[in-house]
């Protein structure tokens, strides 16, 4: 997920694969960058989405769900930076990021061409509101995301502490087309097959982590916007769960500005209150996220 910060260009957005764009600077040049980290893997999920992993600074400590500033130098050597949610959990030895490609994006037009061995800039000062400490204790935790907004939840779903605090975690993820859900679908499938998680949290772990993907453009088995599926009660009926209530349910929201505003209104309609790191309540929203229009 990419976030909206004035120091950056457009990171959760990236130009399309195959589009002419300047490539990332070779590692030999990048080695001169301050806060440089080495790319260890890159995976292009669609012509609009890709994920990548980089080395983790030895001194970096973060809470699952937080974000950091990453970037590349422009042609004049000036850093182009953007805020990206860390998609890997806090125990991982590397850092993972998930991004879209927006045509002519100052950063993403370069970032989409990185390869294993290249280097990027990573400012090791994590911040963010999508952390467990910003919520009051509860029974169920809902992750509500569109597009690359799933990134911070990819971190939290892989953090055992999430399941120590909540009996159930429901990941609602909505994209326009089915292929855009592949990143989240594969991640959840791997978690359901994780022997350690099953050993620690029981054989019914697949019932403790529920994945509810929907599309809004391509016809699939499940369709509809998150707001509509919540307000209509469809998601509760599909999953056999009661409607959200402030006594049992907690939520985290990450998507475009319009999505965040709409979902906030829905959650408040269920009686949930917005919290923060300094004032935990029933739900939190990542206000810095920009969405697909960057």
Care to describe what's here?
By secondary structure, this protein is of the alpha/beta class. It folds into two domains: 36-127, Translation factors (Elongation Factor Tu (Ef-tu), domain 3); 132-287, Rossmann fold, CATH 3.40.50.80. It is 23% helix and 27% strand. The protein contains ten helices and twelve strands. The strands form two sheets. Strands 1-5-4-7-2-3-6 form a seven-stranded antiparallel β-sheet. The protein has a five-stranded parallel β-sheet with strand order 10-9-8-11-12, sandwiched between helices. β4 (67-73) and β5 form a beta hairpin. Residues 4-31 and 290-294 have low confidence and may be disordered.
SSE topology sketch:
Elements: E1 2-3, H1 27-30, E2 36-44, E3 49-55, E4 67-73, E5 79-85, E6 94-100, H2 108-111, E7 119-127, E8 140-146, H3 151-157, H4 160-165, E9 168-175, H5 182-192, H6 195-201, H7 205-208, E10 209-215, H8 226-231, H9 234-239, E11 249-254, H10 257-269, E12 283-285
Parallel strand pairs: 8-9, 8-11, 9-10, 11-12
Antiparallel strand pairs: 1-5, 2-3, 2-7, 3-6, 4-5, 4-7
Briefly note the CATH topology name of the largest domain: Rossmann fold
Number of helices: 10
Q: How large a portion of the residues is in β-strands, by DSSP E?
A: 25-35%
Number of individual domains:
2
Order of helices and strands: EHEEEEEHEEHHEHHHEHHEHE
The name of the CATH architecture of the largest domain is 3-Layer(aba) Sandwich
The side-by-side strand order for the widest beta sheet comes to 1-5-4-7-2-3-6
**Shape field:** globular
